[in-house]
Amino acid sequence: MNQEQEITPESAALLRGALQRRTVLAGAGGVALAAFLAACGGSGNGSTPSTTAAAGKDLSATEKKLRWQNWPAYMDKEGGKGSTLTTFEKQNGVDVNYTTEIDDNITFTNSVQQQLQRKQPTGYDIVVLTDWMAGKWIANGWALPLNKENIPNAKNLRPQLVEVPFDKGRNYSLPWMSGFAGIGINKKVFKRLTGKSEIKSIDELWDPKLKGRITVLSEMRDTMGLIMMSQGKNIAEFTDADFQDALAVLKDKVDSGQVRQVTGNGYLPELESGAIAASTAWSGDVDGNPDLAWFVPESGATYWTDNMLIPALASHKTNAEKAMNFYYDPENAGRLIAGGVTYVTPVPLAKPTVQKLDAELAKNPLIFPSEEFLSNTQIFKVLTAEENDNYTEQFNDVVGA
Amino acid sequence: MAIALTPGVPIAPGGEAPPERVKRKGKTAYFLLIPGMAWLVFFFVIPLGSLFLTSLERPLGSGPSAGYESALRWQNYTEALSKYDTEFLRSFWYAGLATIVCLIISFPLAYFIAFRAGRWRNLLLVLIVAPFFCSFLIRTYAWKTILADDGFITTFANSLNLLPDDRILATPLAVVFGLVYNFLPFMVLPLYASLERIDPRLIEAAADLYARPWIGLQRVTIPLAMPGIVAGTLLTFIPATGDFINSQLLGSPRTRMIGNVIQTQFARDALPTAAALSFSLMAVILVVVFTYIRRAGTEELL
Questions:
Q1: What ranges make up the beta strands (E) of A344-386?
Q2: Nearest to A212 among B64, B165, B269 (CB)
Q3: Residue A85's domain is classified under what CATH number?
Q4: How many independent structural domains does chain A possess?
């Protein structure tokens, strides 16, 4: 055979293979790399939490810019032409770089944690995080205190949301949107499997006819919250035994194959395609699709809020506060809702504007919940860092997320 | 896995060349190695060392949020392995199964391309590589649609009562299938490369010497294709063991592989646990690979 050949075909193939393997792994590489970078120098993580965030030099006056990182489906037209965001840009002469790369509290925080811990700027002026994660940022000194003089409209904030345990008086955070976790169903598939057209309780998810056709959310507070509430517990002040009882139920359902998967936003396409018949689901996701329906279990839904924060060393703090002020103006808040962001607005005064633009929307309890509706919802209690570690680990070990 | 292309000592073209010349050429070769070695040191050796140190850190409190400090806490390994042994074994089981299925599918395919495809050969090779033009995440997502419970494939298999769970998605079958699909080209290409190199006259000679086709395959073709088989199985088995995408997208909580565990542990800041699991995975894979290569007798590959 060709002994004089320098590169044998198999080593060429190996090279090719290795190259392609790298290409293949590139997709996963993003996650792996982020995790890996977190590993390098991750020691002592959180061991010396600074209580005050370092303020950066505010360039707002000279640099008319704003870097905003948000979740998907949280801005009309995702901030494109004709959206409320362009109105803000025009009115204030600020150029907004708006992206929607947050799809998970933990993943996003991991991606900027190194900068935050080393007191380097993250590059963002506004980030939007769920209550418990916002609380972690504030406790670790990763968020800047808000200058309320720049945000006079903050007075329009829904009163129930002012005195939250993780930020009493809202000195660091302002809600962007709130929502509920309840039960979503694919009407057709659910009817075919169970013969019912609505679902009233979490226990109905454990119906043997639905085996392998339901999913639960990977957000521990929503899934565990819903199960604990179905057991008659108050999730604002549950005990360790309550948590263990609920976890035992979940473990049983996962091990028996009743629960098909444990997902984040990934449940939505599965519910739409009918692969799953029912799921614990977020209110705004399911709303608006005629094939799907969303229910508050009789035992109640969890109520969560995503909050705007200004990361430490943000260089356009005043611009960020201007944007917050803009969205707390009732008319702008109303236009945002009418533009298709069907979550609970933190500005109840937005109702007249929504009424004018889309009368149907104004009646939707998932946007303007009545007191009665809210009374059947609960907010998960604030966990200490230690409890959070402990419960997250136990939950992860059960759901294998 | 590192298929290190070890720099061979440069061979001087003529044995009579003066010794200085040989020496100078050697230096040039080492000089040319600097970029590659620097890359390896900065992006492989140092991170690996850092990962190893992380795997021995001691927690300051009861959980990840309290932080960790440098230590030599070897219990991290025993604790992690005893807690996640199921996932560990499952990963090797799924990857082994996927590798065998890949080999069974790939050998006839590569054989056909190498010996029978004629002018279609290049086209077929392109078709093997073509899926790589699309992100493998997207391709794996596509399988969710194709294998959907109400889809054609699942309905058909159900009508024959082939599926114990009445579905394909969220079962071990789907995960192993995903692994086979995603890593198949890594088996086909090395196999093709070594089959294509076989002189067809050797196979003819086997027939001339009264070897039945089956014996000829066993005694001539397979031994000559051995380097390709070894390379292909390694390129399939090793990444498949650490894979977490297929289990995450096509599997269920009960098909969790070790890659998923490592990812979850990193995400919740339990870095020492994740690092200890990563290191154990590397160590076990290395042992498996070396044992395998010893057995297969193709040390020249490494």
A1: 377-378
A2: B165
A3: 3.40.190.10
A4: 2
Reduce the DSSP state of residue A66 to 3 states and report it.
strand
Which chain A residue lies closest to B302 (C-alpha atoms)?
Answer: A11
Residue B301: predicted pLDDT: 54
- In chain B, the residue whose alpha carbon lies closest to the alpha carbon of A255 is B254
Q: Which range of residues forms the domain containing residue A247?
A: 180-302+384-399
ipTM above 0.85, yes or no: no
Same domain for A394 and A336, yes or no, is no
Residue A264: predicted pLDDT = 79
Distance CA A189, CA A327 (A): 39
Residues in chain B within 8 Å Cβ distance of A399: 253
Is the CB of A31 less than 8 angstroms away from the CB of B263?
Answer: yes
Cβ atoms < 10 Å from Cβ of B3: 16
What pTM does this model have? 0.77
Tell me the average pLDDT across B245-265: 92
In a domain, A251, yes or no: yes
Highest mean pLDDT among A109-123, A265-279, A356-370, B185-199: B185-199
Domains (ranges, CATH) in chain B? 80-301 (1.10.3720.10)
Short-list B289, B171, B292, B173, CA closest to B241: B289
CA distances from B79 to A368, A369, B84, B91, B279 (A): 50, 48, 9, 18, 14
Shared domain for A291 and A390, answered yes or no, is yes
